[in-house]
Batch of 2 targets.
Target 1
Amino acid sequence: MCGIIGYIGKENSIKHLIEGLRALEYRGYDSAGIAYFDENNSLHSVKAAGRLANVEAKLADKPVSHCGIGHTRWATHGAPSDVNSHPHGTASLRIVHNGIVENYASIREELTGLGYTFESDTDTEVAAKLLDYYYKEEKLTAHAAIERMTSRLVGSWALGILFADTPNVIWCARKGSPLIIGVGEDENFIASDITAILKRTRNYYQLDEGEIAKVTRDTVTVWQGEKTVEKPLLTADWDIEAAERGGFAHFMIKEINEEPSAIRTTLGCRIKNGLPDFASDAFDVGIFKKVTRVHIVACGTAMHAGLIAKGAFASLAKLPCEVEIASEFRYNDPLIGEGDLVIIISQSGETADSLAALRLSKEKGAATLAIVNVIGSSIAREADSVIYTMAGPEIAVASTKAYSVQTALMYLLVIGAAMTRGKLDADSARSKVTELYERAPEAVAEMIARENEIGSHCKWLAEAEDLFYIGRGADYHLACEGSLKLKEISYIHSEAYAAGELKHGTISLITEGVPVIALCTVPSLCEKMVSNIRETTARGAKALIICSHDAEIADDTASHIIRLPKIASELAFLPAVTVLQLIAYHTAAARGCDIDKPRNLAKSVTVE
Ligand code: AGP
């Protein structure tokens, strides 16, 4: 998704804009650009389709500047091209924009009638020219013009704005798309996320919905409507090393390697006397005695983490739990209200569909809980309660450590729910917590140590055109995540299937040499899984099995078998998902794919 950076201060802004944009590359982009004031206070734009290096090449004369804004674009309206890249503007102003202006066509028509012409196909240029109209033609102040312009827009925006006649000010505004203001020494920033400015500062203000801000080198003023607002200064507890590759070939493999410590950090502060304790989150597990149903709503990998939690709610806490895709949730007339608890799981805390699902759930009277990685993100702030995962920044588009900490944290939460509902005694709970906190991270680390062995299975997978993941119960949910991971970074078509459902149609696609990755970590389902695997190999499939250490599976059942380390079977999902992530990683690497920046994908999906 698009990225925004802005710098104003004593140093050369160009350096900080490029550094910031580079740090935001992980969000996904197809073009980039900057606008800056030069030493004579003239306003310039430099923009180009493709990689950031194309912008840098156009800056070869190394201009000196102390104020500028920059943008990485992920095309929505208009193809990736130099002219469609941001910033957009007029002689009087430049803007960079994240989000979508839904009513741009009618405003464009209106502005054309007023004599404006347009060079790009973007919705952003329409916003820029509307702002120009209020500023230059109606002669409103900068603040009033921004207020007026945004009041006309339908959609979502995070905006960075420079006015040609005020070279010492960056303006910004937010609705629907995240934007922060970084506070440094003798310098300030705007950014779409904290990773862009971590090298310079960890202190920031989070802009709230509808707010407009004026940022100078040493002041920040924020308005909500006519009134100025005092904002709390937040401090990110992430350091710059956490947001850098640190010697790893890709962020994805670095983040897989961080899983054991991320799980421990996330769980450690929520365990007291060997039992779950969410007092430091001000979350009362007593709510699980009152609610009649839990709904987990999320997207992509976070939704898959919810599926693992659903199984645990049923088996441990005996509490019905539905898992819903956030983009479908509000269009399916969800039957929720008082007595329901809606849990939104999100790494970024900014996913537009998940945020919309949260708002709808609150409207309908359900209690809401956010499981979120980014402190101060929209979902975290709007939910009734929040429990933060502590994975540190996740930069790779393919989510890995976030899933591990989400599932581990949800499992701890379910143990708490089971206890409070009288379904689990303290001793049993304590031994489950020990296995989760002590053994699970070790088991994950053991699989990471076997990276080479796992990678050696991927050469033949890399040649596949189509691939199937199968499993039953929790293993089917793992299969969904394994398949998603492979698709997004290797571009191999793959499907996750409930193993028992294959013969109801899909088995017709299993032909000679088709790879089938079979998950087999649930002991009670192992025998049935072996039958399902044999159904596929009998039709020529080449099977790779991932199973528990002692699964009774004969060596001739599959071409390859990866046995997990010893761990309680209900927690086998943790080392198993690490194997699936490593398979996706090494398969994509064998195909020469751009692993951290897969095509067409963005890290944080802040539009519907
Ligand atoms: C996973 O690898 C993804 N790239 C994607 O499915 C992601 O999990 C989804 O977009 C949800 O994001 P969130 O956790 O930030 O809400």
Target 2
Amino acid sequence: MWIYIIAGYLFFVEWQVLLLGDKFAMKRIALVTSGGDAPGMNAAIRAVTRVACSKGLEVIGFERGWDGLISNTFRELTPRNVGGILHVGGTILRTSRSPEFRKPEGRKKAVKALEVNDVDGLVVVGGDGSLRGALELSKISDTLIVGIPATIDNDVYGTEETIGFDTAVNTAIGEIDKIRDTANSHERIFVVEVMGRTRGFLALTIGLTVGAEVILVPEVEYNLESIVHTLEVNGAKGKKSGIIVAAEGIGDTYKLLKAIEERAGVEVRLSVTGYAQRGGNPTARSRLLANLFGEKAVDLLLQKQGNMMVGLEEGKVTSIGLQEVTTNQKQLDLTLMKLAQTLAT
Ligand code: ADP
């Protein structure tokens, strides 16, 4: 008698495990690219799709950032239809800034889209703002959410580098190297404005790698006297040309140019690198990060780890909680400013 009861119980438990296991198994994941576009986002779409499909998952891609979740606009992604995009800048899924997603009603619509499409896991590819959005969404959704940091600004806490940063640096370097030729020929000073409204990661790396005489970042208030002093010391040594790399967030660069002209009595030209920095074919580095991050994001979802972001720490692919990412601020290494100064004498 007891033997039948125990056998029946074991049979019941086994079925429950099978049924529940099936219920919670990851079957379908979605991708979204959001916020400012970054070269390598397409490489990330390709990597996530191909790795996920190789593990038997279905993949859909919501279009135009968070707006695509709000309006439930998506397309199926397959290993074949993400072909030919690895080397292309921008994002085939398009992107947007979504004011509606900032409101609870907008995010509720996004949750609905995840539910009606049976999305078990969502991969959010974007910058700091998109990752904040991902955290807010995860608070009201059962779908597991993993972020992939992709922004030319490299301003995301929890990762040494973001997808697209290296490409944007190289694009700016290409432009500034050319400006250097004309600056040298005419013995002129150039102010080159690069992107970076609030953070100076781009300006600092660009400045350091083009040998800029002066680097200005939003984190440090600039001092006109010290800029002029640097230019004068260089001039006295016979270095009549110079490049001042300034992040857009330092203030009005044209005003700065005028102030330098007035104070130093030299001609100064302004070049604004602008949106070209956002586009272009991703460099090997940006593609590599996209591949590694894409694989890790799918792995996390398969391990049922949501609310995470993949990142790079000490050169290794890691993961970190979205909460930690969004409550901390990545620090700019200001010792590099000193090195840049030493190198540009
Ligand atoms: P990026 O991801 O490149 O930093 P944004 O800062 O514009 O770009 O963020 C992209 C989108 O993420 C925003 O348009 C908005 O819809 C959403 N978002 C940003 N911050 C938040 C937040 N604190 N709460 C909810 N959604 C947010």
